[in-house]
């Protein structure tokens, strides 16, 4: 009974999405490998292939590999589904993922055929992707301020505007933040991951399991830090910490840390998220790329450094945005889970 409890909480039995490659179309360019945030792809024998360093539980089905592939050689089939236990989600989704269908009368038509009927805002929303590949080209300060200005005009509870921005263009400072966050996160992976997986340079046994004390701690963390220890989240954090060359902020030329005043009205986290999304949409409309990176919260372990950055004790780190010029065409439409709507008429 106890073993079954730990299994369903810490290592649930799940069905996973599948990476399917059309080998005739694949030219081995490696774009999908570079775009995968979880490092679960590689080029082998001149073709894209799954990386066998771990088991495949880390795929978050973001489909950036699909969006990035210039030859449309990749399809992601299926979805992450857990049938029982703490992480059960099979009852939450129906009918699988579909491409955007904003005009119901034309549902099923290729997006390109309806794109011309959409507003510019809609087009940016449907095509925006998280960008993790940036050119070294700097972003002009005027453009950074333009993106932040879009955030400034986001709605907030009581028009309280709890946000504050730390805009960093100094590469040495961004690299220092990266190093400090990785050190913080490494402590977490020591608790949350099989130790055979902690070092990229020492490929781990794909069948490795948590030891007894990790099982005890994880059962508690699942209840109090649920989103941070979800199985795929654990894998994502380990991707960052196990590879000494992995840069949390993707060597982007600009990093914007989003803060919220703890003394604000209502849900300061929600308001700051709305603010950030305004910034994301504005950036992509300008041809820039962005990626949300909440791992920046690892700075919480360095109060003196936080103060050096201008983060006062009254402010909470909510998340951060990388900003820069995309190295390749990544913004594109991909399939998403269908909306869960309860109509009341």
UniProtKB/TrEMBL annotation:
4Fe-4S ferredoxin-type domain sequence ranges: 17-46, 50-79
Keyword Flavoprotein: yes
InterPro entries tied to this protein: 4Fe4S_Fe-S-bd, 4Fe4S_Fe_S_CS, Nitroreductase, Nitroreductase-like, Nitroreductase/BluB
Pfam families assigned: Fer4_10, Nitroreductase
Protein origin, superkingdom: Bacteria
Residue ranges of the TM segments: none
Keyword match Isomerase: no
GO MF term list: iron-sulfur cluster binding; metal ion binding; oxidoreductase activity
Keywords linked to the UniProt accession: Flavoprotein, FMN, Iron, Iron-sulfur, Metal-binding, Oxidoreductase
UniProt name for this protein: Nitroreductase
Native source organism of the sequence: Desulfosudis oleivorans (strain DSM 6200 / JCM 39069 / Hxd3) (Desulfococcus oleovorans)
Lineage, broadest ranks: Bacteria, Pseudomonadati, Thermodesulfobacteriota, Desulfobacteria, Desulfobacterales
């Amino acid at each position: 009974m106890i073993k079954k409890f730990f299994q369903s909480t810490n290592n649930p039995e799940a069905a996973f999405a599948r990476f399917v490659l059309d080998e005739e179309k694949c030219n081995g360019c490696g774009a999908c490998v570079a775009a995968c945030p979880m490092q679960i792809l590689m080029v082998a024998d001149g073709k894209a292939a799954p990386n066998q360093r771990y088991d495949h539980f880390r795929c978050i089905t973001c489909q950036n590999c699909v969006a990035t592939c210039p030859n449309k050689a990749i399809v992601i089939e299926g979805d992450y589904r857990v049938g029982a236990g703490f992480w059960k989600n099979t009852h939450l989704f129906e009918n699988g993922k579909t491409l955007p269908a904003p005009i119901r009368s034309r549902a099923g038509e290729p997006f390109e055929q309806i794109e011309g009927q959409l507003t510019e805002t809609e087009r940016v929303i449907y095509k925006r992707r998280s960008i993790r590949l940036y050119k070294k080209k700097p972003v002009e300060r005027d453009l950074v301020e333009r993106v932040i200005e879009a955030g400034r005009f986001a709605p907030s509870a009581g028009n309280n505007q709890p946000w504050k921005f730390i805009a960093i263009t100094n590469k040495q400072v961004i690299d220092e933040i990266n190093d400090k966050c990785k050190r913080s996160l490494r402590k977490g992976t020591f608790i949350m991951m099989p130790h055979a997986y902690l070092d990229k340079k020492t490929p781990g046994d794909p069948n490795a399991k948590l030891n007894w004390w990790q099982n005890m701690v994880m059962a508690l963390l699942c209840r109090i830090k649920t989103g941070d220890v979800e199985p795929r989240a654990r894998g994502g954090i380990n991707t960052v910490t196990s590879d000494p060359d992995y840069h949390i902020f993707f060597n982007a030329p600009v990093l914007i840390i989003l803060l919220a005043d703890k003394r604000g009205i209502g849900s300061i986290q929600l308001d700051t998220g709305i603010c950030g999304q305004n910034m994301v949409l504005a950036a992509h409309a300008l041809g820039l790329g962005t990626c949300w990176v909440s791992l920046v919260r690892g700075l919480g372990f360095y109060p003196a450094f936080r103060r050096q950055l201008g983060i006062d004790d009254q402010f909470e780190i909510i998340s951060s945005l990388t900003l820069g010029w995309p190295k390749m065409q990544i913004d594109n439409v991909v399939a998403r889970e269908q909306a869960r709507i309860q109509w009341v008429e």
